[in-house]
Amino acid sequence: MTTEELKQQIELYESADHTVHLDVKVDQDTVWLTQQQMALLFGRDVTTIRRHIKNAQTEELQGLPTSANFALVHNEGDRIVERQVAHYNLDMILSVGYRVKSKEGVYFRRWANSVLKQHLIEGYTINRQRLDALRTVVKVLQRSSEPEIAGTAEILNQYLPSLELLNEYDTGEILSPKGDESHWRLTYEDAMSFVRSMPFYTQSDLFGRERNGSFQGIVTGLYQTFSGEELYRSMQCKAANLLYQIVKDHPFSDGNKRCAAALFIYFLDRNGILRDGDKLLVEGNALTAMTLMIALSAPTEKDTMIALVENFLTR
């Protein structure tokens, strides 16, 4: 199975009471449902679902890509017709589930996360096979006496150390690097001020609203000490734990992944390692991938997730 085939699959969803069965499209690292499917999932009529989608698009999900058109084939009389139908991603599905106060939304979220995690693992397996093949190609090219061919191998070879992280992840051998000392200290007041400055904050009554002082505990915990030494000794370690804990501990009523990713970048920038001239240490796609990877990880994989982010920041 190719990576492209993995990205475009149909998974069968069955509700906890076995009364709802849905063919769920998996594409672009998320799951997709139509309005009609959401109506079945949450036990509401399509008009209600449509109203909640419209409200979510103007409030907590404003400006975010939450819909896409996919072709659906069905019979109309004697004809087989293919039509483009609007589908909505997991963010919208969960938002609608929250608005209609359906317990089915929680069950669907757990199922979707399990499906997406499996797709992520299978995708890594395919990429690992390609990485092994790339190593072989590099070795062969390096033997060439032609400068142009050998030069191509040298360029490819520069990327292999970073790609090696995939292999270390698969084998469970990834370790935390030494890292660098922090030059700037993040305070709770500074962090909350940054969250409030995000455009989502004024667009929703839930985004960035702290729950029970848990976010303050995360920020102050980055600098906790034992026997006079910081537990999170390097700047990379602090950044990785900041990202991980906000994503997994849900200190905010809404927007935890967005707040985590933004604060992660803010922390790196204030510590002076986000940019090397015009080049960013963490590009947008990489930031999204790291955040999603952490969100889908199991609690037992915490140390591996944090070490993976640390290594990404130091290689």
From TrEMBL:
Domain Fido: 174-315
SUPFAM superfamilies named among the record's database cross-references: Fic-like
Gene3D superfamilies per UniProt: Fic/DOC protein, Fido domain
Lineage start: Bacteria, Bacillati, Actinomycetota, Actinomycetes, Bifidobacteriales
Protein name (record): Virulence protein
PROSITE patterns associated with the record: FIDO (PS51459)
InterPro entries cross-referenced by the UniProt entry: Fido, Fido-like_dom_sf, Type_II_TA_Toxin, Virulence_RhuM-like
